[in-house]
Design a protein that fits this description.
The chain has about 170 residues and is of the alpha+beta class. It has one domain (about 10-169). It is about 40% helix and about 20% strand. The chain is built from five helices and five strands, in the order αααβββββαα. The chain has helices at about 10-20, 25-50, 55-65, 145-160, 165-169, and strands at about 75-80, 95-100, 105-115, 120-125, 135. Strands 1-2-3-4-5 form a five-stranded antiparallel beta sheet, covered by helices on one side. Strand 3 and strand 4 form a beta hairpin. Helix 1 (about 10-20) packs across helix 4, helix 2 crosses helix 3 (about 55-65) and helix 2 crosses helix 4 (about 145-160). It is globular. Residues about 80-90 have low confidence and may be disordered.
Length: about 170
């Protein structure tokens, strides 16, 4: 189990690295940076509530957290594959698409959820009035090794929080 460390230097390193990759022509990295930022903020609130070391305002913020403010839509399809040669949804799984930005440039996350609303199988896709291009966060060499795992974990938590709750029911 991944344990969050408050004031983690890896968080700041990841944000700085993602900042250098994101610009107006490549909003996919800006979207990933925002996901890391928001998910880390939620995680800190979640940990504070479990430990009982929270201010009343933190508890209110955690209880009123709305993931819908951090995406433009979620779509679900069961037993549907985005790449018939490589990535098939299992019988127990559901594929989810989370739209982060629309039009040009457009950014979305496509994830295969397991039967419990979790995933470690997702791809970030982006297009700027062109064909969709894929980024596999776990393997993308534009991210240094020392932040890649952290960024992957943050996007994974984001997907589970945004799309996984429906699957969990």
């Amino acid at each position: 189990m991944l344990v969050h460390k408050t004031e983690s230097p890896i968080h700041e390193l990841a944000l700085a690295q993602l900042e250098t990759l994101g610009d107006s022509d490549n909003s996919v990295w800006a979207c990933i940076r925002r996901i890391v930022e928001v998910t880390d903020q939620h995680w800190k609130l979640e940990e504070a509530t479990y430990k009982g070391a929270f201010r009343d305002s933190d508890l209110d913020e955690f209880n009123n957290w709305n993931w819908n403010e951090h995406h433009y839509g979620v779509e679900y399809r069961s037993c549907w594959a985005t790449d018939p040669d490589d990535w098939h949804a299992s019988d127990g799984g559901v594929e989810a698409r989370i739209t982060l930005a629309g039009g040009g440039p457009a950014v979305r996350i496509v994830a295969e959820l397991d039967g419990y609303g979790s995933t470690d199988n997702f791809i970030v896709e982006h297009a700027n009035w062109s064909n969709w291009e894929q980024i596999n966060v776990a393997r993308d060499d534009r991210l240094p090794d020392y932040v890649r795992g952290y960024v992957f974990d943050m996007v994974e938590r984001y997907v589970s929080n945004v799309a996984g709750w429906r699957q969990a029911f």
